[in-house]
Amino acid sequence: MTGKKKSAQASVEAMYRVFTVPEAPESTLSRIDQNISRNLAGFLQEHIVAVERDLSEVEKDFSDYAIPEKPIFVSEQAQFLLDKLVANSVHTASPSFIGHMTSALPYFMLPLSKIMIALNQNLVKTETSKAFTPMERQVLGMIHRLVYEQDGAFYRKWMHDPRYALGAMCSGGTVANLTALWVARNNAFPAEGSFRGIHQEGLFRALRYYGCEGAAILVSRRGHYSLRKAADVLGLGRDFLVPVDTDDDNRINTDALREKCLELHRQKIRVMAICGIAGTTETGNVDPLDAMADIAREFNAHFHVDAAWGGPTLFSRTHRHLLRGIEKADSVTFDAHKQLYVPMGAGLVVFRDPGLASAVEHHAQYIIRKGSRDLGSTTLEGSRPGMSMLIQSGLRILAREGYEILIDQGIDKAQTFAEMINAETDFELITKPELNILTYRYCPEKVQQALAIADSLQAERLNTCLNRITKFIQKTQRERGKAFVSRTRLEPSRYYHFPCIVFRVVLANPLTTKEILADILKEQRDLSSDEGIQDEITILDQMADAVLKQHQPGVRQA
Question: Which Gene3D superfamilies does the entry link to (predicted)?
Fold first, then answer.
């Protein structure tokens, strides 16, 4: 026995072997598969959010930049992934991970995902997808009906008609929003007379032909950053994604929206699209979609609703009224990997009019021929996996009733957490939940009293100090890894619109309990006593005392 480690060899036989399905249940690959499944199950059952290990240390495990010359065994790579990747991943399914729009998945998604991966269908063309193509059309039809509630005759006519598309499947909300605005741009500058359309001649000639100085997309200041990307990619320029002021509840101000449209009209800038938000990323608020639809119609603009987060609220009979007016949208974005609870990498956009998507139709003789059933003719992305299989599985296994329970529980949980925060003297609720997102911060009762009577300069000083404390607590809690809330920056009107750093909480995980939420608050309260932040706490306390003393009756003003 030499003890020499056995090494893998590259050969024709070895390459053939790795592409061959193992026959025996006790084969090496079968054992590896079972080991991975056990390891992942153990990881997912843990409630810790992340191991307390600095990212710079993790980087050392991935520092090799040269592709290996010699192969290694699958078992060796599997162990590497389990030790170095899985062990150092973020446990987004943990019930105490409540900081981002990523949640636990229904466990059935794991085995069902094997079907999608094993079949490796490419949805760009029926020659590489077959049954996956009508399935994707069915999923688009299901979500279309959720939004627009057309009758059965409508879907029997349009859902599988190869000449039309009720929507487009995408890798996520960013591409879905881009697809919707791509359709809006092409329909805003169609072929006419000697002009062959913007899709053929480009933006410069389109603007010149139609006598415009530019084309704009309007959205509230709470709009998702993907809309800026879309304005850039579509050639409009980021300056032409026009932000509109919001009210105190982070919803677009419709008077300001209409005034902005009139201003652009006077400047000969075409209002190409107006975007409503159904579930803002930072605060979870819903724009007044009904009123926005009327303004879009007045200015002949495409009305798009970014419902990447809040769209599934339509499942809830109790809360669907919050999205009133969404049915008037020309297009609506959903992110399936958010509140439809499918794995990452699935979004879609649906169009009210089945003919709208023809504005971006494209063909190629070798793959997407005109008149074919190929879904790639109206999608921005070419090769795509069959993620519709997982969406359809969720819609069938959970069904409307199941999704309604998940949505209702999330909103109820957010309202409960808001009540818990209001009952705590050391915390301040910044935005109350409309859906299942809320923001708050560490702010002792005495400081809240001082802020209530402070002038703008005093409020700025107090809030600057609070910002440093909130950032410290959030960062330290994240590094400890037991729980996670994210942070963002808002400009509350009650604090003279000064930028305030706040905790942001997303309550979509059905496994999150009231006890877990109480533990998160307790850990944050304990962190306020950490020696690393005590100087700031002392300064905050002194500033609050000074403000309160200045406003006491009988105290002489300077």
Answer: Aspartate Aminotransferase, domain 1, Type I PLP-dependent aspartate aminotransferase-like (Major domain)
